[in-house]
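Bench notes, afternoon.
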Amino acid sequence: MKVQPAVQTNDNPRFVSTLTRNTLALILAGGRGTRLKNLTDWRAKPAVPFGGKFRIIDFTLSNCVNSGVRRIGVVTQYKAQSLIRHIQRGWSFLDGRFQEFIELLPAQQRTEEGTWYQGTADAVFQNLDILRTHNPGYVLILGGDHIYKMDYGRILAEHVERQADLTIACLEVPVEDASAFGVMAVDDSWRTTSFAEKPEHPAPIPGKPSHALISMGIYVFNAKFLYEQLIQDHDMDQSSHDFGKDVIPRLVASNARVYAHRFQNSCVNMASGVHYWRDVGTVDAYWKANIDLTTITPDLNLYDEDWPIWTHQEQLPPAKFVFDDDDRRGQALDSMVSGGCIISGATVRRSLLFSNVQIRGYSTIEDSVILPNVSIDRHAYLKRVVVEKECQIPEGLKVGFNPDEDRKHFYVTDDGITLITPEMLGQGIHYIR
């Protein structure tokens, strides 16, 4: 069965069709993301702010909506309140009268065992009754914690054309980075021949020893096939009930029709030929991905009208820059500054400011990511820092110049990025972030 694109956008066809409308997406958004350290003390990783005004999960949700997959379930577990609030405020525009919705699926001990979600496969298994109620032909399983733009219609079309049971989106990465992911091998037809979850020694791509083929955690299942596999996995006492560790390796070994889908075939609006996909799961990676957005032509295009990133839009005044004295000039250079910010006689360079950031006179901010509602007092000097929401940076604070001194008060990464939170400043703020 060949599925032709139904909607054309410039030179980039979208596969919005009966196929995408017959698909239900499940976004697994229950993980904490411990490698982000204190940024996930009070929120799940998908709820972490990104890019000046978004949350990480907005990219996956936007991919769904833009692809025409508008029946979506969001599976939550760890400290989900800020994520739930964000989805309620920013994603309530889908219209149930047209069978479009986003359903929140928190862990509810829905099975006889009365357990919380035990793994990615178990999280889907515990919601089988809800899936069956919606009666999709295909189930698209996604993570909610990566930054990328992808037309899911293309992987769905390829899945149907190949008559696959399961299709896994994949991309090439340097082999030294592959051990953090599921590593795949394929034959000439891109049928998967092996799958190893986070192997210590990843197998390289034949003929390309410097790179390995990794799973992106994006799966397309035929719905009935998925239900059968989840029930089978649930009955296995030795299983950890995880797709990458248990279900997928077992399917590959059983000779099921498991295929790989190259991300380059569905990546949207590449800049300079780059297939943009970022795992922002560490403080260093998070800082770098945000700072990259301040460059002249970043690989991730946030100004794309054909594939917009949707989010909750706060009603805020424009950013404001005041004072033009030689020793006190409000300015931002090579930076992104969001609404509600006031730069009052301070200098900002190569930095990304989220909403409602106030920086007072004689301060200098360089190469930094400042999250919403941060107030920075006079004569502060911050360099290569990530500042958590609601921080009140005191007058004269200097961070980013002496790592040994910074480690006495803050978290400093191996690459020298300093994370500052209200608790580290002794401000003791515990709230939904």
